[in-house]
Fold this sequence. Notes:
Elements: E1 4-10, H1 31-38, H2 44-49, E2 70-74, H3 83-90, H4 108-118, E3 122-127, H5 130-144, E4 147-151, E5 156-162, H6 168-181, E6 190-199, E7 202-205, E8 210-213, H7 221-227, E9 231-235, H8 238-241, E10 249-251, H9 256-267, E11 273-279, H10 281-287, H11 292-312, E12 317-322, E13 341-346, E14 354-359, H12 363-373, H13 387-390
Helix pairs in contact: 1-11, 4-6, 7-12, 9-11, 10-11
Amino acid sequence: MVKRITIIVMDSLGVGQLEDSYKYGDAGADTLGHILDNYNLKIPNLRRLGMGNIDDAAGGRLAVDKPEGAFGRLKEMSTGKDTITGHWEIAGIYTGEPFKTYPDGFPNEVIDRLRSVSGRGCIGNCAASGTEIIEELGPEHERTGDIIVYTSADSVLQIAANVDVVPLDELYSICTKAREIMQGEFACGRIIARPYKIVEGKRVRTADRRDYAVSPPEKTMLNYVSEAGKQVRAVGKIRDIFDGSGITEWVHTQSNDDGVNKTIEYLKDDFEGLIFTNLVDFDSVYGHRRDPIGYGKSIEAFDKRLPDILAAMTDEDLLIICSDHGNDPVHSGWDHTREHIFVLLTGDVVKGGINLGERSSFADIGATVTDILTDGKYKTSMGVSFKERIL
């Protein structure tokens, strides 16, 4: 019997290009493979579960003879390669129309309304790297109090501010108002608060980031699990990604390690349902900054914590580790890459050595979770459960 399922998303750890990656400018993208090209990964725990045995993952260089978990790779059916699209598809939603992007900056009407509701000027209004733009425009922002507004190849409006100039509560309030502006014809996937501070003369983004996402257009595995009378606990930015829909309890995190700690804290509680965790540092700290060595070390740090997670599980727990898109740290630019994602499953309830092969949708994860935790009472609108294959 499975009493509880924990999903941990290693944000952006793609395992190779999708067939249509060229349409996104991502031909040849391979996050895991290119990290391994640049760094000698030592991840014995992930390898033991079958990470290297996934079809075509890193060219088989991380494979082991007898993997202990169930493993596979999944295609993305939705259009896009962003965080919301990936997580929503995992949870059972198909996104056919990509969220609107603003490669040339936001329309004057948006900026004028943002100035009006914030009571502050706006500078930037361009597509940029978050770490670079605070260095470039930070002095002007700190002198004038104008907020830094920028975007990326994703459907996001980001607002950066020095916390000593714009206090956190004010920044969050401005982002909430920006969410109201970015609806209808201007709708975008997320508004992101990007606070930073000056540490030893250098501008450093803090861990107080907040995402303000659009609401899911339909029910997901989160809603079905909670409607079945079970708890859904979110760790990290999961609550933001789903705008709280179907979530019964949540906690924000400061780092990957903090996310692991908070996941373990939830595992030590006695309850039935779902823990859904996002570990964002892989993406935000290393992928976007095109740092394959740092990315590799971050994967190793998670691998070292995996035994702690497994030790906190009971014999009625199922652990799912997956990704949500790619972010190849040697690819051009600084944005996500359209890739397959991986899935690993383990726990006393899981058959070992099961190769799930290549699945046709990320949503097979959500379909499986919903099938198990609601005893088949509910089904997500997309996805095929592999419950019978793994239990």
